[in-house]
Amino acid sequence: MALHIVLFEPEIPQNTGNIARTCAATGAVLHLVHPLGFSIDDKQVKRAGLDYWHLLTLYEYPDAAAFLNTHSNKPLWFCTTKAQLTYSDATYGDEAYLVFGKESAGLPEEVLVRFPQQCVRIPMVAGARSLNLSNSVAIMAYEFERQRNFVGLLRQGALHRLNWPSAGCT
Questions:
Q1: Quick check: 45 and 14 in contact, CB under 8 A?
Q2: What are the residues facing 130 on neighbouring strands?
Q3: Which among 7, 21, 26, 104 is least surrounded, fewest beta carbons within 10 Å?
Q4: Is residue 68 within 8 Å of residue 108, measured between CB atoms?
Q5: Residues 74, 88, 136, 23, CA torsion sign
Q6: What is the pLDDT of residues 30-70, one digit of tens each?
Q7: Model-level pTM greater than 0.90?
Q8: What pLDDT digit, counting tens, does each position of 12-28 carry?
Q9: Burial level of 151, CB count in 10 A (0-12/13-18/19+)?
């Protein structure tokens, strides 16, 4: 699997449900790092991605240390408002673990200090604190896929079924 979405201690079930749906739609693996602010059996999580759960590959870890001990040799990218590098200036390669913090506090400072060259941010106007977590995941997931020319996501012939010209919409 090329794309991995990692959530450190997510708190809002609807965000995680929406992220699960994005993962299912892109073929990304979802990694949940405990403690969670909800049960993944909660109806809010299931409702947000109800018809996609069978497409999802999900891994869980008891804490951040367990995840980092298992994957520290992988291409990790940490999304934080504190980064200098923007997400679109990073080169992700064929595999990436995009790591996001909890909604109320982001990623732990000790993680950011440990991996400073692997921190990226999504640009925003001055005064904007942050974006919704599920929106941030979608932005970064599709940048990863864009850099790979959406390999595996485009279905040839989809435009023809709609009787659209193959050169574009008119």
A1: yes
A2: none
A3: 104
A4: no
A5: negative
A6: 999 999 998 887 566 666 655 677 888 999 999 999 999 99
A7: no
A8: 988 998 999 999 999 99
A9: exposed
